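pinging the channel bc i need a second pair of eyes. not urgent but kinda urgent?? the chain im working w is below, pasted from the shared doc
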Amino acid sequence: MSPLLLIGMTLALQAEPKPSLTRSGNEFLTSCSSTDPTQRVVCSAYVIGLWEGASPFYKVACLPTGVNYEQLLDVGIQVIRDNPRARHQPTKVLLFAAWMKTFPCPKAGTK
């Protein structure tokens, strides 16, 4: 067994398990409200993947020009924090709802 693999396995066994930020709004809020910059990157990556994976197929929201992924993350955190009764729901459901509420698409026939 290589020394590098052995070190990696040792560190992995010592690591404290983190909640899955995809499971529910509770876990997402805990993970993404952290001051740990690594955790913020993980949360940003999740938001980017969720948005990019869904937006080509579904009209999730209509983002104004200039809205970036960091704003999508911030909106998600704020809406989930402000709605504690819904935090038990899956993270993706809560994020889509937050984005649709914050960045609604114009109704058909309106400009």
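so Helices lie at 3-14, 25-32, 37-54, 69-82, 91-102. and The two ends are 65 Å apart (CA to CA). — does that match what u expected or am i reading it wrong
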